[in-house]
Amino acid sequence: MEGHDRLLAAFLAGELDPAVARRWDEHLLECEKCWRAVREDRAGRHAAALLRQPVPPGLADRVAFAVEVAAAGRHGQRDARPHTRPRWRVRLGSRLRWRLAGAGMLAVGAVVTLLVLLFPGGHQGGSVPAAVAAVARYAQAVPSPDRELPSAAVAPAEVGRPVTLTADGQRIVVRTWRLGGIEAVVAVSARPFSMPGDAQGVSGMGMAWSARLGKIGLYCVNGQTSELVAAPVPEAELAALAARLPPA
Amino acid sequence: MAGDHRAFLDATLPYLDVVYQVARHAAGNGQDAEDLVQETYLRAYAAFGSFRGGNTRAWLAAICVNASRSQARRRRLRPWDTSFMELPDTQQAAQAGGEAGRDVADVVIAALDAEAVSRCLALLPEPQRVCIVLMDVAGYTARETAEALDCPRGTVLARVHRGRRRLARLLAEAGVTHGGP
Asked: What's the pTM value of the predicted model, to 2 decimals?
């Protein structure tokens, strides 16, 4: 029976030699049992084809975004690897090496000071944890409608459906809310969102912090479930905005 | 190397549709098909450097099936498991066509309904179910299915054939039990 089934399967898949297939054709005219097997096979195939569903809108973007975040993490790790000693390195006397190192430190210090003076208040670097960066980039990618301050009369409305991101092994569910003309992203994770280098602790809130990445303000409350709100609003408005969004 | 994820997405995103079809049926209890698709692509991206450029569709299907199995293991669930309502007795279903004196295929085709198909598909043994999903739902060829599942093509054909027949019988039984359309 096993061999018979396999032959019939091969016949139905069109994989038999023409001569053998012709014999099967003839056999099917006489054998009720095999003919029924053929019809059942056809019915099963027809039925299974009904299960095809179109890809949900936004899935391609979600996948592309997740891969982009993974790629950014990978490059970050690669960049963070210690550099191997270059082969062309010449031997320098220890005194000269210290002088050069000192000059290098001075140059770096000067550049950092210049950056701080030129861009006060903005986030210009610092270490940004991968999960926080992913949420900020997601928020940045959300097209924002005309700027309008949140008003008490406007209830938050969800835009699209929740999206799951994974950044540096941290699973994050992201939902987007429209509130008074602002698109706010609320990211929830079972793991706390680490503080970026230049984040500020929020007084009286325990493990809460706020920060700014480019035009995106971030407001985070870590707890059993951690929540990170990202929106293109000034940091001073973030706490009030977060309070008006539905709880995670 | 900065654009490697672009190359990866160019090579794999055209197959999002087939991966999604596989993920919908591979995702078990508590799993979300879209999460599984994302996990598949992240795993594929991590392994892209060692991918030797064979059949990308089959490679993605293999990753999706393996990802669903390992997620299910982590959650201590059966992969390809779904929370379906009461189902007809399989033994009874197997005899439905003959005993009712009706052609199983006629009963099935007359009463096709995606939800019932989904419920009955869940009753098939996993090897048959995987082959049916890959070939009849996602549109993989027998060769690609064999490659994805790392088994001989003859085995795939036999499994899909037995699975289809069993599915047809289960559907016939479901049609009889629930009074048809």
From this structure: 0.59
